[in-house]
Amino acid sequence: MQNQDPLNPIESSDYAVQLATFSGVEQQVKTNELLQSLSAQMGLSGMAEIAGWVGMEARSEAPAWFDGQRPVTLSPDPAPGADQAFVIVRDTTGKEASRQAIPVSAGTFDWDGRDTAGMPLPAGLYSFTLESQTGGKVIATGRVETYGRIIEAQGTDDGPVLILEGGTTVAPGAISALREG
Question: For the chain, which domains are there?
Answer without folding.
Answer: 12-57+148-179 (no CATH), 63-147 (2.60.40.4070)
